C-alpha cells in the first residue's frame, strides 16, 4: 500500500473535536484531488461491520428460490430487494462503442422503512430470522457516518457545519449487500462479463465496506485511462464522491471513474476468481429538494456551470439507466 496515493484520513480528530477544521480540510482536499479516500475511526466498530458481512454471506448462500421471495420490482427506478446475477448492466465507460456488459453479481437493496415511494422488499422472517432488523440497524449507523462526512465537507467549504446535512434529512439512501460469485478469470479478461464495468456513482457520496479480496480500481486523476488499485485496508472504509455532488460543487469535487476488475494475485490454481463481498451505502440529497451551486464554489472568474436541479428527477433517471 506504500505506493497507493489515495489519501487515508483519520476521522477521529473530527469526531472528538480535537482537530475538526484540519480534518475537514484534509477530507475536502482528498475529494478535490482524487474523489476517493480511505476513512479510519469513522464511528462503526469492526465487529459491527463483520456482523453485516456474515449476514450478507448467509443471505446469498440461500437457495435461489428463497432469495427470489424478495424479488427486485419490475420498475427500473424501484431499487429494493434481491437482484440476480446479470440483471444490472453498466456501460464500459472506457469504450463507449461497446455494449453494456452483464454485471456478474447479485445484490440486495435496502432503504428507509418509511419511504412510501420506494418500499422495502423483505424475505419472509423464517427464511433468515433477524435479517430485516440487522439490515435496518446498519442502515442507520451508516447514515450517522454520512452526516458526519457531510459536516466535515461543509466546514471544508467554509460553510456552517450543518449546511449539507440540511439537504440530506430524509434520508433517500440505499444500503446494498453485494456478492460477486466465483467466475473464470478468462471470462473477465475477454470481456464476456464484468464484475462492474467502469462507471461513476450517481448521488452525493458512497461509503463502501469491502472484504479482503480486492479488485476495486479508480481512475488516476493525473493520468486518464490509468487505474489505481483501491485495495482493502483493515479497519477502514472507502468513501468516494458521486456525480450529483460534483455538479453541486461546480466541478470542484471529482466524481471518479471506477470499477471492479480481476485481481490477478487472488486467482486460484484452476483459473477462478474467488467470491467477493462488498457493502456500499449510497447517499443522496433529499429527492424533494431543488439544489443550487454550493456557495464559495463559483465567482465572477469561475461562474456557475449548472442550473438548479431537482434531486429526485436527476436520481430517478440515473437509477433507471442501470437496468
From TrEMBL:
Does this entry carry the keyword Oxidoreductase?
yes
Q: Entry's InterPro entries?
A: DIOX_N, IPNS-like_FE2OG_OXY, IPNS-like_sf, Iron_ascorbate_oxido_reductase, Oxoglu/Fe-dep_dioxygenase_dom
Q: Which first-to-last residue range defines the signal peptide?
A: none
Residue ranges occupied by any Fe2OG dioxygenase domain in the UniProt entry: 171-285
Report the superkingdom from the record.
Answer: Eukaryota
Q: Which GO terms describe its molecular function?
A: metal ion binding; oxidoreductase activity
Q: Which Pfam families would you find in this protein's record?
A: 2OG-FeII_Oxy, DIOX_N
Q: Print the keywords alphabetically.
A: Iron, Metal-binding, Oxidoreductase
Q: Which PANTHER family match?
A: 2-OXOGLUTARATE (2OG) AND FE(II)-DEPENDENT OXYGENASE SUPERFAMILY PROTEIN-RELATED
Give the record's family classification. Belongs to the iron/ascorbate-dependent oxidoreductase family.
Protein name, per record: Clavaminate synthase-like protein
Write down the species. Answer: Suillus plorans
Lineage, highest ranks first: Eukaryota, Fungi, Dikarya, Basidiomycota, Agaricomycotina
